[in-house]
Amino acid sequence: MPYPTEHTINLCGRLLRLDRPIVMGIINATPDSFYSKSRVEASHAISQRADEIVSEGGKIIDIGGCSTRPGFSEVDESEEMSRLRVALSSVRRSQPDIPVSVDTYRCDVARMAVEEYGASMVNDVSRGWCTMPPTPLGPDEVPPMFSIVAQLRVPYVLTSHCSTLSGMISDLALAVSQLRSLGVSDIIADPGFGFGKTLEQNYSILSHLEELEALGLPLLVGVSRKSMVTRLLENSAEDALNGTTVLHTAALMSGASILRVHDVRQAVEVCKIVEELKQKRAIPI
Fold first, then answer.
1. Over the stretch 262-283, which tens digit does the pLDDT of each residue have?
2. Predicted pLDDT of residue 67
3. What residue segments make up the domains of the chain, in order of their start?
4. Phi and psi of 35, rounded to 5°?
5. Most CB within 10 Å of its CB: which of 39, 108, 157, 166?
6. What is the pLDDT of residue 113?
7. Is the pTM of this model over 0.85?
8. Angstrom distance (rounded) from CA 221 to CA 36
């Protein structure tokens, strides 16, 4: 059972320790997120959701204005910005002290969120390529989002679309080298469950997640109510909480540092239980 390295990330001057796992709560400011109960668009609903995340123990709020679910309909950049401006301003009024991550694969949107609203992290599911589905560049080309994050000086969630663990480690290692060369110091690795992977590949990667510790990065896992739960159990996103909790437990036992979730209270409880188990296992009997 891996024990997390004592990683820290710098969120606009505030150091957040990741020696114990934390929970990132999701706010989807979109009308088409795959989990309908997570959609919040009106300002008051966004504020209520932010209050709920904080009250249930979430340490970061991840806000997105453009769905990237399978088969999503891409919205133009101005619409994504408009949605995020409403969401970011609502969260800032309601919970001014909570660190905010912006979930976007567009450079100008990331810049707007950080510079105008003080977002303290960029969560980019495109692996820096700024297109969805991703259009990979050559191995010597630097993805455009990498340069933007370096300029903004905020932590970056680096997502992999590789379908095998060996390919993922090689690809992420290359990306980390490029980011480091630009001066990006706070990098979080996301295995990208549901992105470019079959059901079997998702479970294979999760079952060997501890091998990603070779990268020396904190790991973010986002499996909440995703199709790797619903397809296996033959249910819907609305019925996927129990399966999600099982996957969260497995991810934490394998060294995950951050859980990105819809159901914050339940994920926080999983973190507490797994940490208690790890502490007890470290004590000889």
1. 999 999 999 999 999 988 877 7
2. 78
3. 20-281
4. -105, 105
5. 157
6. 98
7. yes
8. 21
Question: 103: closest CA among 117, 92, 116, 113?
Answer: 113
C-alpha–C-alpha distance, residues 255 and 139, integer Å: 29
CA dist 175 and 195 (Å) reads 17
pLDDT at residue 38, rounded to an integer? 59
Contacts with 38 (C-beta within 8 Å, 6 or more apart), sequence order: 26, 27, 28, 262
pLDDT tens for each residue of 132-141: 877 877 778 8
Low-confidence ranges of the chain (pLDDT < 50): 1-4
Task: Read off the tokens for 176.
Answer: 């980390």
Q: 20-281, what's its fold?
A: TIM Barrel (3.20.20)
- 3-state SS string over the chain? CCCCCCCEEEECCEEEECCCCEEEEEEECCCCCCCHHHECCCHHHHHHHHHHHHHCCCCEEEEECCCCCCCCCCCCHHHHHHHHHHHHHHHHHHCCCCCEEEECCCHHHHHHHHHHHCCCEEEECCCCCCCCCCCCCCCCCCCHHHHHHHHHCCCEEEECCCCCHHHHHHHHHHHHHHHHHCCCCCEEEECCCCCCCCHHHHHHHHHCHHHHHHHCCCEEECCCCCHHHHHHHCCCHHHCHHHHHHHHHHHHHCCCCEEEECCHHHHHHHHHHHHHHHHHHCCCC
Residue 80 tokens read as 């994504």
